[in-house]
Amino acid sequence: MLRPDIRLYGLLDRDRLAGRDLAALAAASVDGGVTLLQLRDKSGDTRQMIATARAIRAAVGGRVPLLINDRVDVALASGAEGVHLGREDMLPADARRLLGRAAIVGVTLKNEADLAALDPALVDYGCIGGVFATTSKDNPDPPVGLAGLAQLRTQTAATGLPVGAIAGIDLANTAACIGAGADGIALISALYLAPDVAATARAFRDVIDQALAARGGSI
User: Exposed site from 54, 130, 179, 219, fewest CB < 10 Å?
Assistant: First the structure.
């Protein structure tokens, strides 16, 4: 399986970005350097979610993959390139069986139990978090912080999977996340609530690429 480029992972959360054109936001962020997109919709109906996913895919024109949070059925119906799964969602093995080998399957990693269940034969990347406190999602688990990120990242190294950092990340702490071992960062508010999404994405990409170069990681 080809591992996805998770350097700058844009999360289009319909609830958090209510009233905004998600397809237009997606296109602007890709213009600025986003490398992977995810659609998250915890409250909308299935038909609307499929329509939104199709609109996003049309807007980005295949430049980057689109993943669907939780919903394998929506990924299949919309033609999205894969899914992102949490610990209470469908098992990666079942998602892989339904979506096929070419699909991208990502998972959330919050603790050592999640790491123990991680199978690099089924999963293409992981996201560690929340790293910092965030208002973008209800999270009953305390933030792992930079030290927790570094520890969990070290424990995933043998899998060969790219691993990103999520929650509470902004321009000021992005380089520290990369320095702690993250191969990329995932953003909602810091990117999609910015006045100029494309320019903000470019600013994040500059910091990410410089931090990866300084660490000796691939760009």
Answer: 219
Three-class SS of the chain: CCCCCCCEEEEEECCCCCCCCHHHHHHHHHHHCCCEEEEECCCCCHHHHHHHHHHHHHHHCCCCCEEEECCHHHHHHHCCCEEEECCCCCCHHHHHHHHCCCCEEEEEECCHHHHHCCCCCCCCEEEECCCCCCCCCCCCCCCCHHHHHHHHHHHHHHHCCCEEEECCCCHHHHHHHHHCCCCEEEECHHHHCCCCHHHHHHHHHHHHHHHHHHHCCCC
Residue range 8-214 forms a domain whose CATH class is alpha beta
Whose structure tokens read 């996913």?
53
Condensed to tens digits (0 to 9), the pLDDT of residues 14-55 reads 999 988 999 999 999 999 999 999 999 998 899 999 999 999
Per-residue pLDDT reduced to its tens digit, 184-204: 999 999 999 999 999 999 999
- CB-CB neighbours of 146 under 10 Å: 18
